[in-house]
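Weekly sync notes, structure subgroup
Attendees: PM, AL, DS (notes)

Item 1: joint prediction request from the bench team. They want all two components modeled as one assembly rather than separately. Inputs as received:
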Amino acid sequence: MNENIEQQKKSIIGEKIIAAAKSGKLKMRPRWHFVLRAVLWLAGAVIAVLAALYFASLFLFINRETGIWLAPVFGWRGVLIFLASAPWLIILSVLVFALALEILVRRYEFTYRLPLLYSALAVLLVVFAGAALLARTPLHENLSRCPRGDRLLEPAHFAPEASPCGTGIYRDLGPRRFHDFYYGTVKNITDESFIIIITTRQREDFIVRINSQTRLPFGAQFQIGDELAVVGDRKGDQIDAFGIVEINR
Amino acid sequence: MNDATDETIARRVQQGEIDAFSLLMERYEKKIIRYGKKFLSCSDDIKDIAQEIFTKAFVNIRSFDCKRKFSPWLYRIAHNEFVNALKKKKSEKIAFVDFDVFFPHPAAKESADGDVDRADLRRWLDRGLDELPAKYREPLVLYYFEEMNYREVADIMRLPVSTVGIRLQRGKALMKKHLESEKHE
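Output from the run, pasted for the record:
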């Protein structure tokens, strides 16, 4: 009895759908609808990968330009400086776009058949390998230039009030100054090598004092023109160096 | 026409032969309703959901690639509708992130259950399927009742194939535990 009622109900389902289709109330979506949807989905994935690549390469570029990635070589103090100074907004942007990419590609067989861990690692690998390549190109260097050709990261021109050129993201990078972390070029060295004068990217001169506690690279012999990263306490224009490392770019 | 494959019939529907769709419905109505009843553990509203599934299948049939198998495509639509119904029920929790999907399970490969084993297992599963969480219930229903293979279950649920294997194993282990505890009571 129950089966008969069920059979009746089922046939009603079928009849309803066929009748609605024949009357035109129910229409099949055209093929182009699905093609367009697939194209949009793919475009979303391409945009996500490009955005992730852009921000990841920008992160690498900033690290290289500011030298902040060297801070952890000075131990815990350096690690804390790095954590406090890292461009977290850019790191967050990389993660957001990488996550968006993962979600967008997860609908395809080649990803959902893999454990999430593998596809997430593959996405991160693609993003960071691509970003490493992109960071080697002059893209960010060119984008950080003012229309007249000066680099925004060169401080004489990127003082915000003096030079409102370039996009905001690069303008914010230029005057960046990190707490207890100084990055500059050796301008002068005293004969005893205890005092080094460096010019930072902000075009400020600092006297760097080296003492017996200062952490130096093995066999360090600094020369005028060398680029150095210095961690230390600043008093006025003097820095008591906690550690110095030479930057080979 | 009755001997034609599902894929051939689907192609005819795509070309505008509306009546051909009733053949697909004849073939799959019972199966979809059975899948829904066992997965949702209830028969309320199942006809309405089935109607929604076939309506969606008709509307979207041109997205079906006739070079592929029709049944996993239809079951995928059904899976989505049933999961939505489960979410509405709220009595069953569906986790947003599942660690079964996150990590690889190298040991979970397709088992070689014979036909006799499958029939026995179906009878055994029928006794306590309702007691299992939805994430274990669904692969068991698709594998043992709808006779899909691991790959098809993985495509329907959009899961890694190894996760399907591990859920089947765990589902059966949970069932065994549940039935044993029932016996002792």
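Discussion: The radius of gyration of chain A is 29 Å.
Action: AL to compare against the crosslinking data before next sync.
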